[in-house]
Every structure is written in C-alpha cells, then in structure tokens.
C-alpha cells in the first residue's frame, strides 16, 4: 500500500484513531508525556499546533473569503452563531453541572475557539455547502485573536486570573504565523503544495492524536475520578451546538445546505487550539486541557455519525420537498 493511501486512511478514520490515543493516554499515561515538554527551550505542544495550522494555511486560499462579499448576511450570522452559541453554551453547562474551575476553563476555551478544519470535511461528507463552511472557518479563525481572549475573559476572567493580552499574542504565534507561512509556501511553491495536500490531513490527525494522548495521560487519575461527568458535558456541548447552529440557520432564512454547514460549523471546534491555550495560560490547572482533548476525539465521531444521517436520511427527505417546490434538489450520496 502506498504512503498516499495510508495517509488517506488515517484522515478518513481519524475519529477512531483519536479514541485509540485517548485510550493510550489512560492506560499508558507516560507514553506521550514528551508532548508537554520542551525541546531546545521551545514548547513541543506549541510546535505541534503550529504544524496543524501550517497545514491549514497550505489548504487555504484568498478565494475562501470571496463568499463574504457575495453572501455577507449569511456569513455574518454564521460567524455570530460560532462566537455566541458555543462560548455561552459552555458557560451554562459548566454552571449547570457544577464543574470545578479547571474544567470550567477547559470547556469555555473549547467554546471560545474558532471552528476547525474538520468541520469542512464533515460538511463535504454531509453534502452541505462546503464553500460556506470553509469561509466561516476562515473568518472565525481570523477573528480568533480578538474573540477568543475577549470571550474567555468575559466568561471566566472574574473567577480565574489570566492574561488576555498574552493569549492574544499566543494565538497570533500559534495560528497566524504558521498559517501565513503555509499560505506563502502555497503561493511560491505551488507544485510542492499540491503534492503535500494529500498528506497534510494525516499529519494533522496524528499530531492531534499525540496531543490527546499527552494531555489525557497527564491528568489520568483526575479523569478516571470524574470521567462520566466530563464526557457528558463534552457530548452535550457538541450535540447542542449542532442543534442550535441548525436552528439559527433556519431562523435566518438560510438554504438547507447552508443550515447543514452551519450546524456542523458551530458544533465542531478547533479543540486542539483550546488544548494548547489551556496548557500555555492555565498551566497550574492541568485538567483545563482535558475537555479540549476529549472534544477532539468525540466531535470527529459524532461528526461522522451526523454526516451519515444527513447523507442517507435527512437530505433525501428534504430533496423530495425541494423537488416538489421546484427548487434545486440537494445531492444525495448513492447508497
């Protein structure tokens, strides 16, 4: 089997791989402890997040923002939903389940981070509006240096001291610099970038899996003592995000395919970034990185299930409705 096919399988089954590494973190907690260390004075975790963001830059184009000019209203509502639903849902769930400060920080960070590139893949699998999804991911990422520290400070800043300006700088370093380098490589070395695209999803998947194992391993005992509660909150955060994202799309008059994209975009977060920020800015609270690590594994599993439901049942139902109304039918995957 060629390396390209192996990488394709890794990207396709990332949800399963993430669960496996979560298990490694629980049962062999020291196997990936190096993830949280330093090499030559540089944080390995930050470098790994930079690799993920570099891959995002290599697959991003300025054309991804063209839809902002064509459909400004829908993009505006989509980005507002991204930065309203998940942060405040995280805060409400943390209060409802009486989470301790560390877990509250972790859940809130997941909520205040931008959408992740996994949402674009799941939208494609669901036959949603992929350009709409990509544009929302790009826009929320561009806004993240301001929105993530601001919302985190508004939601937990009074209870837990942290430096919003330091988080702003961290996001610039972890997100914008690697994405900028990725964009530069794509523009100046297009042939290399075209070849690399086939391998980047697998690299990102493995890096995130290593992060999951490292974070879970570092907090193994605390997780085992409250595993059910953490998992329940993470699952509710994700699933309610899907539902509320879809509802907002419907209330704002979006098309079916855009509603599908918005539900996925809102429900799936850049939880790898949340994990990195937790480690960088809440180092005294090791458990703060756990919700992001669990979310990384869970949302890929739930996303795959949601894509199956959309493409095999829900789209088919609305396809018939659209045909009756004389509208363009939604594409349905051949079963």
Automatic annotation (TrEMBL):
Membrane topology summary:
Multi-pass membrane protein
Give the Pfam families listed for this entry.
Answer: SBF
Which InterPro entries does the UniProt record give?
A: BilAc:Na_symport/Acr3 (IPR002657), Bilac:Na_transpt (IPR004710), Na+/solute_symporter_sf (IPR038770)
Q: Where in the cell is it found?
A: Membrane
Q: Which residues form the signal peptide?
A: none
Query: Any idea what this protein is called?
Result: Bile acid:sodium symporter
Residue ranges of the TM segments: 12-36, 42-63, 75-97, 134-155, 167-185, 197-216, 222-249
